[in-house]
Design brief:
The protein is an alpha+beta fold. Helices cover about 20% and strands about 35% of the residues. The chain has a four-stranded antiparallel β-sheet with strand order 2-5-1-6, with helices on one face. The N and C termini lie close together (about 10 Å).
């Protein structure tokens, strides 16, 4: 089991979510987050140049069994890009081992709980 954490541009959320549903990945958690990376977008506010320190992003948490890792990651990569070649700020994907999953309602454990 793996936990896939994807940080994506907020405008791409609907495309990514729809593509995951088509790939039969239907159980996701979505959170609004802020952060910064390589992108630095200068804005003019009241005549003064301002560089915001944090950019709004969306975080997807997806717990999957091992056989769904590649399908999930490939789907996110394909749909999270804002242009065909991608651009700075499109996001990141982290894959971490998931030691245990427990369904609270039934007490099921492991891959059947996902």
């Amino acid at each position: 089991m793996k936990l896939i954490i994807a940080i994506i541009h907020e405008t791409q959320l609907d495309l990514v979510r729809e593509a995951l549903i088509e790939a039969e990945i239907t159980r996701i958690t979505v959170s609004r987050v802020s952060g910064h990376g390589k992108q630095r977008k200068e804005e003019i506010y009241r005549g003064k140049k301002v560089i915001p320190s944090l950019n709004p992003k969306m975080r997807l948490d997806i717990a999957v069994n091992d056989e769904f890792v590649d399908i999930t990651v490939d789907t996110i990569i394909r749909t999270a890009k804002r242009h065909s070649e991608g651009e700075i700020g499109d996001g990141k994907i982290f894959i971490v081992p998931l030691e245990e999953c427990i369904r609270i309602r039934t007490g099921e454990r492991g891959s059947t709980a996902i």
